[in-house]
Automatic annotation (TrEMBL):
SUPFAM superfamilies: Porins
Lineage: Bacteria, Pseudomonadati, Pseudomonadota, Gammaproteobacteria, Lysobacterales
InterPro entries xrefs: Porin_dom_sf, Porin_O/P
Superkingdom of the organism of origin: Bacteria
Keywords annotated in UniProt: Signal
Protein name: Phosphate-selective porin OprO/OprP
Length: 432
């Protein structure tokens, strides 16, 4: 499936003239289903101030076939080019069909992003990626009580479940990319009201070949004791549990730079593994033009065989965003909703600050021999400062400054080695 230049041009022009309050494009009514067309294009640039590791080289974390990997201090590319068809009806049915023809997938990687990784990257193929492909039935016509079948984001992670087009920062927090289970095929049941929800799901692999695999289940509960315009308090708990693929598991993280080819913290391949369980707690507070949110994750990996201890790791983030132009947020289905600018011509300005931390260590090193007992994947602490400008109903411009502080055990150095790069990131986004 390819997105032709003519098709994209028509879509862009149509979106430019779409009404501000209804960004998606209505296409037709077929078989009682009202069909609309949505899209998202994100172009990004990264500028690296490297410390030890060249963040844009193949090195030992990838191959020459890896995307980017040119050894330069800059990298530019299309991050997403999503095309989505949606249908409402007949009756209480809804459906979604989404695809990203620009997405690259690693042939030898399982669960690399948003699912935990299991194998070393070998090659990268540009072949596209399936997004949401599912059908939903609203029981009794209630949007908060439904059954869903197909591929969808699993019930975990406040940040992962929030819309990509409205993320507060260019890269999701490292813990979200490391621990959150994103889209998988399965079946889900959810029941709730405007202030609370309980969702359970059973899932398998991703539709796109060679990506997320491993059967499992997920549970998420949310409660918003305060849910008023400009005044929201939300808390939630989630848990996912799934099989590791080929009895091998791996966790690693980019330094909050999606175009980087290197990871500064990496557990390496952990063999003889059975299942992994990941629990998380989340919180959100909105007061007028201010929003604070945070999440904490803990992963527990079960192993078998003599001499193999279970592996534990954890991490979290906290962020704050201020809408300088005065807009506030909404709340729907257990996630915050970013509103359109009150003055479309002037746009909406945001400034934000985030701190996220990830600890992949569960072992010790011998300073005499350099040998490792357990797993020493490293620790990573990152500060991100960002500015966003939402212009009219279809455009967003973002600029982030990222300060990375990592420490990882080195067998050669027989001790911990620091690597503290800085990164400037920019994004231009068009959506309809």
């Amino acid at each position: 499936m390819k997105l032709s230049r003519s098709t994209l041009s028509v879509a862009l022009l149509a979106a430019l003239f779409a009404p501000a309050a209804h960004a998606e494009i209505a296409l037709d009514v077929i078989g009682g289903s009202e069909i609309s067309f949505e899209g998202l294009v994100q172009a990004e640039g990264n500028w690296y101030d490297n410390d030890l590791v060249d963040l844009n080289s193949a090195g030992t974390g990838g191959t020459a076939a890896s995307a980017g990997a040119n050894g330069k201090d800059t990298e530019f590319g299309i991050r997403r080019a999503e095309i989505i068809l949606k249908g409402k009806g007949p009756g209480n049915f809804e459906w979604t069909l989404g695809y990203d023809p620009s997405a690259q997938k690693s042939v030898a990687v399982v669960n690399e992003s948003n699912n935990g990784a299991t194998n070393v990257t070998s090659t990268v193929n540009s072949g596209g990626k399936w997004l949401d492909v599912n059908a939903k039935y609203k029981i009794g016509g209630n949007a908060n009580h439904y059954v869903q079948v197909g591929q969808y984001k699993q019930p975990n992670s406040l940040e992962e479940l929030s819309s990509t087009r409205f993320n507060d920062f260019i890269s999701k927090a490292a813990v979200t990319n490391t621990y959150a289970v994103a889209r998988r095929t399965g079946v889900a049941y959810s029941y709730g009201d405007v202030n609370w929800s309980v969702t359970g799901a059973y899932f398998g692999r991703e539709l796109t070949r060679n990506l997320g695999q491993g059967q499992g289940f997920g549970l998420r509960g949310t409660w918003a004791p305060i849910n008023e315009t400009g005044n929201i308090l939300h808390v939630g708990l989630a848990y996912v549990d799934y099989d590791t693929d080929a009895d091998t598991f791996r966790l690693r993280s980019r330094p909050d730079a999606d175009l980087a080819t290197q990871r500064l913290v990496d557990s390496g391949d952990i063999r003889d593994t059975d299942r992994v369980g990941i629990g998380s707690a989340e919180g959100l507070w909105v007061h007028g033009p201010f929003k604070v949110q945070g999440e904490y994750y803990q992963a527990n990996l079960k192993r078998y065989g003599a001499g193999h201890d279970d592996y534990k790791s954890d991490g979290g983030y906290i962020s704050g965003v201020w809408n300088v132009t005065g807009e506030t947020w909404g709340y729907k289905a257990g996630v915050p909703v970013t509103n359109l600018p009150e003055d479309p011509g002037a746009g909406m300005w945001q400034v934000g600050l985030r701190y996220d931390t990830l600890d992949l260590n569960d072992g010790s090193g011998n300073p005499t021999t350099g040998a490792v007992a357990g797993v020493l994947g490293g620790k990573q602490n990152i500060w991100t400062a960002g500015v966003n400008w939402y212009w009219r109903s279809n455009f967003k411009f973002a600029l982030n400054y990222v300060m990375v502080d990592t420490t990882k055990w080195s067998t050669v150095a027989r001790g911990e080695v620091d690597d503290n790069p800085n990164i400037v990131e920019g994004r231009i986004q068009f959506y309809w």
